[in-house]
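REVIEWER CHECKLIST
Item 1: Sequence provided? yes
Item 2: Single chain? yes
Item 3: Sequence as submitted:
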Amino acid sequence: MSVTLFATVLYLLMRCSLGSIGQIDTGCMRWTISDGEACCEACYPGNRLVKQKGPNPQKLCTPCENGTYTVKDMSPVCDRCTQCVGALKQLEACTATKDTKCGCIEGLTCGDNQCSHCVKTCGKGEEPTDNRSCSPCPEGSFNDQIHKKCKKHSAKCPNPDEYIVTEGTAFSDIMCTAISVEPTHKKPSEEPLKRWSLFLTIIIIVTLVGLVIIIMTTIVAVKTLQTKKKTKKTPKVLKTPIIRTPTDDPRTLIAIECSFHEAQQEQGSSTESLDSKDSTIRLIA
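Item 4: Structure as written out by the authors:
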């Protein structure tokens, strides 16, 4: 019993010293004591199980050799690292705790999750087949991703307030859009209203200008007509002058002269006035 405890303590001290200098964990990671011996329950990652019981837990498990690995904590053997050959190319190197990570060259795709082989990369609108080739999506299905299986078209839109605007193709599913509720009375566009306003304004301006021109023309015509009427001369009525017998008597000449002037000033006088004047002249004579 004392030997087992001593070995356990020594093993723990060695683990602490190895861990401080950056060495990987080796030996048994978890164990129990039974009948004075350590019984290993789990090896450290990257270690295989040598034997399950022993006085020294460190010797119960041992690290995998180069070119091998293990991901199990109680595996008695380590697996050989995968070699990336042919169309495969190495992405990550193999370690004691994980296998090599391989990938495919350009134009090819891994045929399974472990990428154990490569197949032709299938584009959108097609899907990979079991014989490592590609085939178009069947009727009623589509594929919008690279190297994926085709999916059936949706039978209806996801939301009740949507309707189908584009049917599905081999490259895309159906396309939906929301139903827009338009008002019964649509608001008229502002552009036609602006055009009608401009048109009506032009008509009003032209009409007013035409009315002003007509009014001005009428006024000018009336004034011209009035001016012509005013300037038109009224015909004068010419009266036959009274001719008297010449005489040398001054009184007779004065009377004749007065009679002549009086006749010009009183146009349109009655015949009786002229007779009275003639009588007056005769009396003077």
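Item 5: Key structural point noted by reviewer: The two ends are 205 Å apart (CA to CA).
Item 6: Recommendation: ____
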